[in-house]
Design goal:
- It is a single chain.
- The protein has 204 residues and is mainly alpha-helical.
- It has one domain: Up-down Bundle (Fumarate Reductase Cytochrome B subunit).
- It has seven helices and two strands; from the N terminus they run βαααααααβ.
- A two-stranded antiparallel sheet has the order 1-2.
- Helix 1 (10-35) packs antiparallel against helix 2 and helix 1 crosses helix 6 (158-187).
- The termini are close together.
- Residues 189-197 and 200-204 have low confidence and may be disordered.
């Protein structure tokens, strides 16, 4: 019979759910701020700015909780990468996602208690959680209090640089969310996504 291996403790599942909802709200309000008008189907500008700021601050606090808890719990061991050494495995996983998964091939890397991310996931998640997310939080806070952060650090043209950087990163996070959802539902059932379990092997 098949067993269920719970890969993610409760605090990660709660953080992940909150983080996902906040990212979606930030994407929707961000789009509204870019294209807002009186007949906007999403949010009007004033409302979008207010919701965006509240969600952004909440996301920053939520990330701080994740950062501290990830280290304190030892979960950070799953995020260790060696770009040169891991590259062949990453390429193998890319080939699987590009072709093998549609042919019904077996996943090249087994998920278990010691490896809950495949090489490509681990590489992308490290970049996302320890570079992309901190950068969008920093630029967001900078745009919230530009006189304190942006003008003192980047000078007069810093505001435009911060807006451009914040917008571009937001675009890439949007693409990441779409791909993340796609592969999550492609490889798992809805219940496994919510509860964080992974079906393993056959045991007698």
């Amino acid at each position: 019979m098949s067993n269920k291996l719970f890969l993610y403790p409760s605090w990660i599942r709660i953080w992940h759910g909150i983080n996902g909802l906040l990212c979606l709200m930030l994407i929707f309000t961000g789009i509204s701020m870019q294209y807002s008008n009186v007949s906007s189907l999403l949010f009007q500008l004033k409302t979008a700015v207010k919701i965006h700021n509240i969600c952004g601050i909440t996301l920053a606090l939520n990330y701080l909780f994740y950062f501290i808890s990830n280290i304190a719990s030892g979960n950070i061991r799953f995020y260790k990468i060696n770009p040169l050494k891991d590259m062949p495995a990453v390429i193998k996983q890319i080939k699987y996602y590009s072709f093998g998964i549609f042919k019904g091939e077996k996943e090249p890397f087994e998920i278990n208690e010691d490896r809950k991310f495949n090489p490509l996931q681990r590489y992308i998640y490290v970049k996302m959680m320890y570079f992309i997310i901190p950068l969008i939080i920093f630029t967001g806070i900078g745009l919230l209090i530009p006189d304190i952060l942006i003008n003192n650090v980047l000078g007069k043209g810093g505001f435009i640089v911060a807006i451009f950087t914040h917008t571009i990163i937001g675009f890439f996070i949007s693409i990441f969310m779409i791909i993340h959802f796609y592969f999550a539902f492609l490889s798992k059932s809805l219940s496994s996504i919510i509860t964080g379990w992974h079906k393993i092997g056959n045991h007698h």
